[in-house]
Design a protein that fits this description.
The protein is of the alpha/beta class and 225 residues long. Helix content is 32%, strand content 19%. Strands 2-1-6-5-7 form a five-stranded parallel β-sheet. Strands 3-4 form a two-stranded antiparallel ribbon. It has a two-stranded antiparallel sheet with strand order 8-9. The longest helix is centred in the C-terminal third of the chain and has 19 residues. The structure holds adenine.
Length: 225
């Protein structure tokens, strides 16, 4: 999978060199490039924002640098993602859909957002998704894109060594994950649930399922519909 990120803060993404995604990049599973939007601004101050038409607070990102950045990175098969608190809600299902794309292009907005014509223009060239991480406002799209790339990248075949660990986790079957324990069997007076030490695989599976349902009902009843 190829991933391009356009941002005014390229240094934000240096953490993608480490951990599982760093290894996936080393192994050639994910080919990731970060582009500085200011490289596409040609005035002396490399200006990327201006005041909003119609008035109002804050600054809006100008279309011209974005147009050049898109022209340099976008292909017809691209899925262009603009993170925005005004977008559709990101979920595990979204991550799965995006993990099937050959090319993802993330456009990180700052200030009050990007001139809407940039999104409309990108839509004439490729598939565009405006996606929100959740119902809260971040200062810009960078942190949201980092979270999305982590969620998507681990679903790319080969990135996670044991694919079983993907099917056992939260949100895979609409339920939250069961609690996990490791050795020692007793720690500071707290014991591991005895069923997990029983060796009875049927009983363990049944207990885990009960835990998932109970936890989901308690913490996220909205998921049970
Ligand atoms: N940019 C600012 N807030 C955001 C959010 N909640 N999700 C995605 N991008 C954002």
């Amino acid at each position: 999978m190829r991933i391009d990120i356009v941002t005014i803060f390229p240094e934000f993404f240096s953490v993608l060199d480490v951990s599982l995604l760093g290894k996936a990049r080393e192994r050639g599973l994910i080919d990731l490039s970060v582009h500085d939007l200011r490289d596409y601004a040609h005035d002396r101050h490399r200006t990327v924002d201006d005041t909003p038409y119609g008035g109002g607070a804050g600054m809006v990102m100008k279309p011209e640098p974005w147009g050049e950045a898109l022209d340099a990175t976008l292909v017809a098969a691209s899925v262009v993602v603009f993170p925005s608190p005004a977008g559709e809600r990101f979920s595990q299902a979204t991550a799965k859909e995006l993990a099937r794309a050959d090319h993802l292009l993330f456009g990180c907005g700052r200030y009050e957002g990007i001139d809407q014509r940039v999104v409309d223009y990108a839509r004439t060239k490729a598939t565009v998704r405006e996606i929100s991480l959740g119902d809260y406002v971040l200062n810009g799209g960078e942190v949201a894109v980092m979270a999305m790339i982590e969620a998507i990248g681990r679903l790319v075949p080969g990135v996670i060594g044991n694919p079983q660990s993907l099917s056992d986790e939260s949100h895979e079957d609409g339920l939250l994950e069961y609690p996990s324990y490791t050795k020692p069997a007793e720690w500071r007076g707290l014991e591991v649930p005895p069923v997990l030490l029983s060796g009875n695989h049927g009983a363990i599976a049944a207990w885990r399922h009960e835990q998932k349902v109970e936890r989901t009902r308690r913490v996220r009843p909205d998921l049970l519909g």
